[in-house]
Please model this.
Amino acid sequence: MKIRAAMAVLATLLLPGLLAAQTKVSGTVVCGKPDVEHQIPAADSADHSFAITQSKCSWTKPMQIAGTTTKEDAFTSFEERRADGSTGTGFGVGTLASGDKFNVRTQDKIVSKAGAVQSSGTWKFEGGTGKVAAIKGGGTYTCSPKPEGFVCEVTGDYTLPK
Model:
């Protein structure tokens, strides 16, 4: 019984600290048309291909992370494309106003219906440099096409070790 009581006290003391360490984030990022794009047909149909692209992005509504703000990103994506949409994975390196960098992995789904394109997916932090070297967390995003590329609304959370 003493062990159970001690565990309850320990959980009561530790749980608020663990919950407080998680910080919610949100922001808006605009990514330009790809600087680099390579597309290879899959050869089974005219509307099936694989592509790798690289784009630069800037935050019009920055996220607040570790006492600073997101500034710009460089993203490389790999997609399997079809006429009705695509799926893909990406890797980005973001730069904070402080100069620290963070790494992000994405999983994407792009749907095209009647000429309208909608992109959504999930993202997760995979480390970084400086104050965000051990950052953990992730979230979701939705993107819409614009003449200059895409604009994405990003939400999620992060934790940093104390």
Notes: Residues 1-20 have pLDDT under 50 and may be disordered. The chain has one helix and ten strands. The radius of gyration is 20 Å.
